[in-house]
Design a protein that fits this description.
Organism: Natronolimnobius baerhuensis
Order of helices and strands: HHEHHEEHH
Structural class: mainly alpha
Pfam family, one: DUF7344
InterPro entries: DUF7344 (IPR055768)
Protein name: DUF7344 domain-containing protein
Shape: globular
Largest sheet: 3 strands, antiparallel
Number of domains: 1
CATH topology: Arc Repressor Mutant, subunit A
Strand content: 5-15%
Radius of gyration: 14 Å
Length: 120
């Protein structure tokens, strides 16, 4: 059994990584998405570039880190569920636990476009 403090520490640790937050901001708007469709926006925010200026290598680096690091971590905490074959990602039941904290993180993001997006 995990305590509330342990769950809060895990949530803060998960949300401390910008790529995970960016992914969750996007998924919070639609509840689901495909990594191929989300990767460009995540990369643009991560590297503070326009989507049209992102090169293939940079996009690939973000893709690999999401697939091999960030998605498995989020899935371990039942925040997302994903299928690598199709690239589909959906929010899972654990998302509701971190949603209020994610909203607080969103309000402090340096990227103005993120703060201006609709509320979670």
């Amino acid at each position: 059994m995990t305590t509330s403090a342990t769950r809060m520490e895990a949530a803060c640790s998960l949300l401390s990584e910008s790529k995970r937050r960016y992914l969750l901001y996007l998924l919070a708007e639609t509840q689901e998405g495909n990594i191929e469709n989300l990767i460009t926006q995540i990369t643009a925010w991560e590297y503070d570039q326009q989507a049209t200026d992102i090169n293939k290598e940079t996009r690939q680096r973000v893709y690999v880190s999401l697939v091999h690091n960030h998605l498995p971590r989020l899935a371990d905490y039942d925040i997302v569920d994903y299928d690598l074959r199709s690239g589909d990602i959906v929010l899972d039941e654990g998302f509701d636990d971190i949603k209020p904290l994610l909203e607080q993180f969103k309000q402090t993001e340096e990227v103005q476009e993120i703060r201006a997006r609709p509320a979670l």
